[in-house]
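Deliverable D4.2, example record:
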Amino acid sequence: MRAVDLLTELEPVVAQNLDRHLRVAQEWMPHGYIPWEQGRSYTERPWEPEQSPFAPEVRAALEINLLTEDNLPSYHHEIAVRFGREGAWGTWVHRWTAEEGRHAMAIRDYLLVTRGVDPDDLERQRMATMATGYDAGDKTVARSIAYVTLQELATRVSHRNTGHKTVDPRAEALLARVATDENLHMVFYRSLVSAALEIDPSAMVKAICHEAAAFQMPGTVIPGYRRKAIAIARSGIYNLGVHLDDVLQPLLRHWKFFDLTGLDGEAERSREALADGMERLRTDADRQATRFAEHAQRQQVGAR
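Output generated by the structure prediction step:
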């Protein structure tokens, strides 16, 4: 059987979806979302925790969201190496990078102007995160497009939910705008996965199963990530239940993943393993929700 070159086979699909993306993507200006009138000199008035308008768990989410966006040079390198810099693939790589570049600059400006986080600590974390970079390993094209579809949707959900928790209309508007970009990026990659499922269904199913089972956000390299992720999970911004209900299940439904036919034996076994894994994930998500509820109740009792 002839090996399928997905990079070549998907080129027309990339071109079609790039055209669609350019038609629907709206221009927006990062500086338009920043309350510049609140700006004050950090030299004249150094940052103190009580200046932040955000709860600790919201600060943790904002930091992770921003520091994840900061690692854009590594992400650009990863997709440029895998997808190339020529033709429709190359045009997409550069367009995606340009759009993503607005996210970090806008969120950082907002946090610095509003004194939402410690600016010195934020800069040290940025340096450490970017010095570590991001390495996607040796993913195939199939695994790469499966992963970025999951990641773009997870990032959209994280930004959107963080915005809701800020209780600040301007922060929520900014993060909703960023989430809109992430959603368009997800739709682009989701369409490529759909096409790949028609071109080489067994290989694509195995890629989806692998990436869904092993999924991690790219921000795991951020200093103190685990501690911050626990706070974010407790707040409901992003936890196991959110990942299952708002990311994994919607994508699998869109692809009609469990209805696909004509798969080889290995793909069928991978799909069965993923179904079992999702059942375990639901159990883990329910247990996590119970633990968090009990923790919140203990805190309420202790505060009385």
